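Before drawing any conclusions, I needed to go through one protein's amino acid sequence and its backbone structure tokens, quoted below without any editing.
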Amino acid sequence: MPTISASASASPAFQQGFAQLKVQQAKRNAEQAEANARTLQAQAADAQRTAQRAQESARDLTVRSDQAQSAVGRAREGLAAIRSLSDTSTRLQQTYERVAASIQEKDGVGETAPAVEATVSPQATTVAVSAASTVVSAPSTGGSAVNAQGQTTGTVVSVTA
């Protein structure tokens, strides 16, 4: 802003008027500076609120990311468990088939071996295994096997897998 200066030869009334003019100009400058300061304070408060919201959002995203990573870990563990159960079921089926074939070869008599059915669900912690109730019979050679109803069903065979 242009500044106004009084010369030494000016009259006292002029100098007084000039002083009042300088006071008014200084007052306007102060009011303008005050308005600018209020505007800047409001902008700073808005920026702080925006930064706080961004920090809250970042914390929320971090929590959600951690939860997602935890879910991924649980899913991988579940998948490994399912694979392990499936492998166990397959090995059990193969062992059962070998035992049944061995019994049939040894005795040469009887029906075909029952199929083993294994059920594995994604939530399972155990494998459910069931076999059809087909009886494999063999000629009696002395040591007969008795079922839960007390019926003689065949011979006792010791098989270790």
